[in-house]
Each structure stands twice: as structure tokens, then as C-alpha cells.
Amino acid sequence: MQLVAEQPLLARFAAVHGQLAEALQRKEWAQFTAIDLEVRACLLALASVAAPSDELQQVKLRLKQLHGQAIKAYAEACEALRQSLLTHLEYAEGRSAYLRVDLFQGGS
Questions:
Q1: Would you say 74 and 20 are in contact if contact means Cβ atoms under 8 Å apart?
Q2: Which of 25, 34, 38, 36 is CA-nearest to residue 73?
Q3: How many helices (H) and strands (E) does the chain have?
Q4: Is 63 exposed, middle or buried (CB count within 10 Å of its CB: 0-12, 13-18, 19+)?
Q5: Which residues contact 57 (CB under 8 A, 6 or more apart)?
Q6: 46 vs 61: CA distance, rounded Å
Q7: Using an 8 Å Cβ cutoff, are 13 and 59 in contact?
């Protein structure tokens, strides 16, 4: 009987897992905020289940593992962007230095 009551929550966990897997595969980082909120909602709903079944615990564990992978991949993407921006900033500083030197030397 308990498994029947858990079916909506199992389906919700599965749907969020699918959304997260797809976003991770496509590297659609903009979707992560909404998915994080869904993960939170699932976990809050799970907290209200007195004695979750083994199946529900396994679904939660799979989502937790995928969520950890997604967070790591997202952090790596953020770091790559940071490095790219630093490179562009260094280029801009170099260009600015040329302009200052040209200005002080009367332009050439």
C-alpha cells in the first residue's frame, strides 16, 4: 500500500532526474536553477514520508549522484568562463597599454 502512495513522488524524482540528465548532457547551465528548485521540492516532499521504501531511497540516491556530477560540471564550466574572461581582460589591458604609450609618444 505504501508503494502506491509513493508513486507520485517516485514519478516526480524520475522526472527531475531526466531533466537534470538532459541539461547536463546538453550543458544547458541556465536550466540548473529551476532544476535545483525541483530537487529541493522533491527532497522536502520526501521528508514528509515516514518510512520511505527501498525503491524511493534508491531513486533519491541516483538523483543525488547525478546532482553531484552536475554541480561539478557546472563549477568546471564556470571556471572555464572565468579563465576566458581573464584572458580577454588581459588582452584589453595590453591594448590599453598600447593606446597609453601611443598617446604619450604622440601617436604612431
A1: no
A2: 25
A3: 3, 0
A4: buried
A5: none
A6: 12
A7: yes
Q: Structure pTM?
A: 0.76
Identify the DSSP state of 31. Answer: G
Residues in the chain: 108
Amino acid at 77: A
pLDDT digits (tens, 9 = 90+) for 30-78: 999 999 999 999 999 999 988 999 999 999 999 999 999 999 999 999 9
CA distance 98 to 92: 10
CA-to-CA distance for 105 and 42, rounded, in angstroms?
A: 65
d(CA 32, CA 36): 6
Angular region, 106: left φ>0, alpha ψ -120 to 50, beta rest: left
Secondary structure in 3-state letters for 55-73: HHHHHHHHHHHHHHHHHHH
The residues spanned by each domain of the chain are: 2-104
Q: Quickly tell me which residue has 521540492 as its cell.
A: 41
